Fold this sequence. Notes:
By secondary structure, the protein is mostly helical. It folds into 2 domains: about 5-210, Rhomboid-like fold, CATH 1.20.1540.10; about 210-248, no CATH class. The chain has 11 helices and 2 strands; from the N terminus they run αααααααββαααα. The protein has a two-stranded antiparallel sheet. A hairpin with a 3-residue loop joins β1 (about 155) and β2 (about 160-165).
Amino acid sequence: MALSSRTYVRSFGRSDRLPQGVKALLIANAAVFLLETVGGQRLNWLFSLLALVPSEVVTSFFLWQPVTYLFVHANFWHILWNMLALWLFGRDLENTWGSRRFLKFYFFCGIGAGGCVVLANYFFGDPNSATIGASGAIYGILLASAVLWPDRVILFNFLIPLKMKYYVAIIGAIALFQSWNLNSNVSNVAHLTGMLWAYVYMKTPEVRGIDPLGALRRRHREWKLARAKRKFQVYLKKRGPGGDPWVH
């Protein structure tokens, strides 16, 4: 059963309003890319610090890189496709979840994918290779869209009508197949693990509409009521025929 059929997920619907979270991410990514383009070679030192380099994260403790790499892109087409996907699919998620939950989800997927890239490259690949781009978070958005609206029809490559669930299955399979190519310039590990973290997030109580603290509070109240009921029943028995008249 699709999540969109459940009561705690508002029905899918297009909105002309660009939500604040997506707008902020679009502006931030565009601003960094503009600075990168205008600055040219003079700012290479800065963007090399923002890129995700496993050896620097592990040995030099550049712990900001699993976040900042999400805002650095290699070229115009790289940022164009990522931001287009963010605009097309991210706004639907944010309009459904709200800005706070959407941004939490975005960085959960992006940072989680970055952590997996660090581990994969440090132990199995090149720990000095740099990874940039928001693709880990974007693939997470695509996975979440496929879970929430699996039968939504999109145009694959702007030509072929395809249901969202099949589209995500195809791009996931492509990323999995290409992940065996260690010489690829595309971080398929980030793509796959971005989708993995999105799936994990979709299973959290927050998204499933479960409030664990609220459930514990309800059970505690029920236990207190049951205990009070038992005490009251004991009290009535003592006050009944044959009971102690001095019990109050």
